[in-house]
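Weekly puzzle thread! Below is a chain. First person to post its structure in token form gets bragging rights.
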Amino acid sequence: MPTENGRKREPFRFCSSLNLTLLTDRRAADLHQLLGHLRVVSGSVIYFHTHHFLVQHQYVSPEPPNDFAFWVTHDLQEPRLGEELAAIDMVQFRTIRALRERIVATIERFVAGAAEHRVAPPEREFHFRESVSFVVPTGHVASSPAELATCIAQVGFGALMFHFFDARLRLERGANDFSEWLARECGETALAHAIARLDPYTYTLDGLRHQVVSLIRASLAKEGGQ
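Winning reply:
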């Protein structure tokens, strides 16, 4: 089927990301050390510590905290800062750089106003890790919104993570790959915007899958199907 400008529609090819976790040689025992590392670590380190909870607890936790909030609260015993870090709305950030700047600014503001600075107990330091991703095709290909919904219902969570989270934050490809394709190749701008407005951090991955599929199928039903 051609697009609105007459060119042949490019099919949506599903990929999945396989992630390998690596330890870095960086660790922090207090907020000053944490800030020093946060300012210079790679984007893959920031991505790992703000998103791996989502994968680890994909079945039970629709709104996981990030590692920085967890460590500050439980190991450094700074609950107020922990709440501020946990309250950072990750969906509003389009780049890892912007997310890093917000985390750093939040900690800097707390440090500037703190009368004393706690030190984590021995063996409770924050150890920085990073995620190395390998992208592989899944074999699922969609040429229409209806086929896209069918494939989304079938692919694994790795594909959802890649097209929803990696595409937006790590690869900076816009809201998410599904919305980008629906708008660009199918002219489904309203549907694309509806999917883009979903806050993926308030769903489990299975819940997010259900919402996206439901939006596509409801749109098709409204249009009379394709």
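Puzzle host: Confirmed. Bonus trivia for everyone else. Strands lie at 12-28, 126-142.
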